[in-house]
Amino acid sequence: MSLHFEVLSTSGRARRGRLTTPHGVVETPAFMPVGTLGAVKGITPQELSAAGASIMLSNLYHLALRPGVDVVERLGGLHAFTGWSGPILTDSGGFQVFSLEGLRKVDDDGVSFRSHLDGSPLRFTPEGVVDLQSRLGVDVAMILDECPPWPIDRGRAEASWRRTLAWARRAREAWKGDHGGGVFGIVQGSVFPDLRQRAAQELSQLDFDGYAIGGVSVGEPDADRRSIVEWTAPALPDDKPRYLMGVGYPEDILHAVRQGVDLFDCVLPARNARHGVLFTREGVLKIRNARYKDDPRPVDPGCGCPCCGHPWGVPRAFLHHLSRSGELTAAVLATLHNLRFYLDFLGDIRQCISLGTDPWPGIPGDRTHESDTIRLDNAGLPGSGTLPLAERAAHAGRHGHLLLPADRPDAQASEGVAAGGGGLEEG
Ligand SMILES: [Zn+2]
């Protein structure tokens, strides 16, 4: 079977949908936890499933370098290899290859590069990349695209899109889908509205199984990223899933859902967890802060994850202690929590759309104020305790406290490159 997508209901442009794949059903809008190497860092497939994930994202570039597609194929494909039995989407690695500044050479036929691990030479072509993903047996493959940097002038952005479109044609032609999965096209066009819209229309004519908005989370301002989504999403076919690559913060996801986006991935929940930064229904909580030294409360009393839940949850003081001590268990518990937060958040969004109403507040844009956590009951929002998580998270963001730029772990030199994306960061 190939992919099947249906829109069950709408609220404004937001869509409540269902994506059926060879390895299971994905209720959308959905968040795809990032398991770059085949596993979400620190988490077993069983824990990922228990947290509510229905689909995992992995990365062809990293898997092709190590352990190699041959090894995975011999062991029965990516599902058998990783133990994750649900749907898998693999990114092609175009984003990673194009962040290999100085190590890659692109021509009209493809891109040659050197492995960032051992310097060995490799080549990706549009046909080769979909073939490798087919051999991995994934449910959703992504085409090879040229991901231009930000900023870029219009002429270069347009030339880059021409190449990506030519590659998209070749990839569509080459995709066999022997295992029943589907292949998604990727819209580029940088920050130029007419280019994005034209790109969406041109790509749509190739009849992909779904369409992604790429070239975001490459350093562009928040306002530009949102504009790109607003121009592009409505220009994509109504009857196919839409995927916003590498985004992002809860308020960014909410904004994109309202523009009709169905699928999301981001390294943020897991990466922030490893830095002791926790998403909660009351805002962001930095567990290493001294104020949690003897705090008996769970991280988020409204959360049912193994870190917070009754009767087995732990007090903030314990997580503070483990995190300050650099203990591995702190990262595991925090990751379980943050993933659950994101997955619950998307579940609430789906419920909001199903209700056929638009209960969400305006989209927040300001997150520059210093604060650790915020108290919604002090923020003048009546009845906040009963609000859906989507609304509370958006409210928290609107008051500026979802995450501070200075706190963004991706700003730290030791990890990653771009907000939510991350170059060669392994998720
Ligand atoms: Zn929790």
Any overview of this molecule?
The structure is a single chain. This protein is of the alpha/beta class. The chain has two domains: 4-266, TIM Barrel (Alpha-Beta Barrel), CATH 3.20.20.105; 272-415, no CATH class. It has helices at 45-50, 60-65, 69-74, 78-82, 94-98, 126-136, 154-174, 193-204, 222-232, 250-258, 268-274, 316-324, 328-354, 389-398, and strands at residues 4-11, 14-21, 24-28, 30-32, 56-59, 88-91, 104-107, 110-114, 121-124, 140-142, 182-187, 210-213, 242-244, 263-265, 277-280, 283-286. An eight-stranded parallel sheet has the order 4-14-13-12-11-10-6-5. A hairpin with a 2-residue loop joins β1 and β2 (14-21). The chain is globular, with a radius of gyration of 21 Å. Residues 361-387 and 395-422 have low confidence and may be disordered. Zinc ion is lined by residues 299-300, 303, 305, 307-308, 337, 340. Zinc ion binds at residues 299-300, 303, 305, 307-308, 337, 340.
Features:
TIM Barrel, alpha/beta, binds zinc ion, 427 residues, eight-stranded parallel sheet
Question: Mean pLDDT, nearest integer?
Answer: 86
Ligands bound, unique? zinc ion
Contiguous low-pLDDT stretches (5 residues minimum) are: 361-387, 395-422
Strand arrangement across the biggest beta sheet: 4-14-13-12-11-10-6-5
How much of the sequence is in beta strands? 15-25%
Q: Major beta sheet, specifics?
A: 8 strands, parallel
Number of helices in the DSSP assignment = 14
Counting helices, strands and paired strands, the structural category is: alpha/beta
Number of domains: 2
Radius of gyration: 21 Å
